[in-house]
Amino acid sequence: MKVKVPSLSVELPFPQPCFAFLIIMITRRTPPPPLLHFIVPLNPTPHSPPPSPLPFGPAKPSPPRSVSLAATPRPSSSSPSLRHASGGYGDGARLLRRAWPLWLRLSADPSFVPDLPFLSLLFSACAHARRFDLLLLVLDRLSSSSAALPPGLLPRALSAAISCLADHAQLPFMERALSLLLSRGFPIDSAAGDAFLRYYSRFASLDDLEGVYAWLKRSRHLPRPAGIRAVALAYVRDRELYRLGRFLRDVGLGRKDLGNLLWNLLLLSYAAAFKMKSLQREFLNMVRAGFCPDVTTFNVRLLAFSRMSMFWDLHLSLDHMQRAGIVPDLVTYGCVVDSYLDRRLGRNLRFALDKMNLDDPPRVATDSLVFEAFGKGSFHSTAEAFLEFRRNSPWTYRKVVATYLRKQYRSDRNQIFWNY
């Protein structure tokens, strides 16, 4: 078959109507027909997704469907063509006018096997055009012909679809997409489960988030660090620290694959509420369970001691860090400096700083979730502003502390500070 277009002649083996259509669509000079022309004949099929959202409860999967193909599946070679067709079309509706007819032509070919870049571009086109129903139709087509797809393509395509829907805050469509695959007998994997936790923690209420987690737990899903951090951030921002501790205990504090993440978050839930006795008790339980405290563990306790002006516990924690070989960071120095200056004990500051190496370069090794609960102290935030200025000699903790004290001395001359 020979296709002739203006200034272009291509020889194609007969029959390949999909690539001939693609060449004509790219090189034609007339504007493409309206989007309604392609969408009107696409009424929901008997395999369309269920209209009701997913009721989070025990899933009742059915055996997956198998599709026999007459021809041998061939790899998708249309992804570069779709990327070429989408170039220069920033508007979602325009991109969908080009992408959707191409998908209809290619999916009608029994030997066509899509790949992940092709599906990601198609999902993005549907999402930007606000046609989320078409995105679900694509997932429906993929799940009905899962036997012809490469192994692992359908879970990755589901994760890409969930990401597109979540970026547009379409939680009901996310539930419908997951309900579609569960009804076809496909189990949910850890990546999709973590995606639900992350996006529900951003867009949904805490009650809905706990409902999703309970449903994932019944599905034998173990949350990953990204999902746990997202849920913890939602609790911390709403100051639901008790519910955060309950969630962490339910996940399981004995998980060795997560390091100190669960224990640090549990200590943070007590420290941010200034429950000092519970904080000390859980720290001892952490050590007895075989976990080695890190710099985040100590800084969570030091921040609570600093805000409560508990100098004796502050010094004991610094001695413990020194014996354990934990290198202090900028947050540790901020806890010491702020606690002494708040009580107008600047002349005694040297007594605490002698336990740390003032000649090390400044760094921040503390988990960022700690700042969501406590914020950044005066020394920490000011020191980060200092570090943005370049100097002939590199910054050290000694220079940062000295510069900060001079700044405080100029702002309050009635206070006596130690001069470095």
Automatic annotation (TrEMBL):
Q: Where is this region: Disordered?
A: 49-87
Concerning Gene3D superfamilies, the annotation shows: Tetratricopeptide repeat domain (1.25.40.10)
Give the compositionally biased regions (Pro residues): 49-64
Lineage top rank: taxon: Eukaryota
Q: Where is the composition biased (Low complexity)?
A: 68-86
Query: What's this protein's name?
Result: Pentatricopeptide repeat-containing protein
Record organism:
Eucalyptus globulus (Tasmanian blue gum)
